[in-house]
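ingest -> validate -> predict -> emit
validate: passed (alphabet ok, no gaps, 53 aa)
predict: started
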Amino acid sequence: MNGSVGAFSAAQRDAESMGFLSTVPALRTRDVRAGLGYLVTLLEALGRRVGNR
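emit:
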């Protein structure tokens, strides 16, 4: 949880506006792919919990 809080505060501090086409090259970076993997796993877990209601 501490890692997530640190990542959120870093993102708030460092965020820049991006267009759709500028996201494609960003997907090539290891950090972005790792973050996307984390988000997909989180969404899967959330979906399982919502689906079990």
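The mean pLDDT is 86.
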